[in-house]
Lipase class 3
Amino acid sequence: MAMVEKVSIYEEFHLKTDDPSPTPDSKVSINGTNQKPRQGRLYSTKYSELPGGLRVDEMIYGVQMAHLSCTDDSENRLKGSGANTVKALEEIVGADDLRKPLSTLLKDHFNLNLDCWIDESGFRMGRAVDTQGFIASNEDTIVLSYRFSTTGLDWITNLSMTSSEWEPDRDEIIGHAGICSCVDGLFTKFCTSRGKPRVHTGFYNNFIYTIPMIRKHILEPLLRSDATPKKVYIVGCSLGAALATCAFCFVLQEMLPSLENPTFVNHKLINVTAGSPRVCDKLMQQTVMERMAKLKPLDRAVICRLVFNLDLVPHVPFRLGGFYHLDKLVYITNEGDVIINPQMTKYTQKFNEVKALFQSFTSKDKMDEEHATASKSETEKTPFEIECEKTPVPIKNHMPFWYLTRLRMLEAKVLAGEV
């Protein structure tokens, strides 16, 4: 993410809070006086082109790849999918191609070859596992995409509120985080200074089963002596975003010695998540961000954590449970503005977050003329419009369609030279 240093103008924002608390950033000139700015700046091409900068084309591509995991090459693809899932897929590939196999969509629309379909589901050693996704590639891109929640097993994963030590090399061998992993290491963590980084147990257990595929289709090609530079997208929405976060941490860890070497092949890791739950404990967050600090100046790694409006899911598990996000928030407003690192104390600080989250269920969504349905009869409304009408705002704002369309609005501003 681009670093904001001394600039002549700094936009101020009042998102969900009027708290004017300054950030530790360098002082800037505001109205002729040196002050420390509020958090938050509008997306700008000036910063997006800097090393480690966030780029709208990468955001859109990442969200598109994340949502394409909703389908596959089976005869039952999209069976049982909600109207919002189908609507977002239509936004990506068009109405005529909705029912085509994933491999065809990847090839026809993105020139990608489907290398591997991920499908690990059932109860393994007493643990619920339900992980789907895909790995696809071409000569300059590799994509790892995880599917969002679709089954009851997924919700068992989502509702887990425990953490386990981050030990993927060991846990890959046994196929899970370990017996009683939720308590293993807690004494060391809280009573000594030798605690290990920890991650959400449910997400971690589901991720572990994909490590062999990551090694074969991502790490091995990237680390070959004759490798050519590639962008590596590790992406997901919702539950898929949490798994993508685990996968990004793993690939970052495995490739760090190579990527921090300026003479190594110029690969770039790009983690794009939409509506991700929290995954890491504080130590894991710090460990990953220290690694990112080494790679951002080389433009070899970037984390784009997208949240749209009042999306519910990024606020769980609560900070009260000791879970944290990676990197700064990339906040998308209902009007299509994209704001980097806004001040949102009301929505992120422990008990305030819980209170604000419940209050958001009574929020009234701004009427979007494109999808206004009040004047339509029930027979005139599309399934997507009906689903939106019946869905509370914090859940509706979690739908990938809104992420995609609002990012398209930003893209139009970029192309018009307005940002």
About this structure: DSSP finds 16 helices and 13 strands in the chain. The domain at 39-415 is CATH 3.40.50.1820 (Rossmann fold). The chain has one domain: 39-415. The CA atoms of residues 164 and 183 lie 8 Å apart.
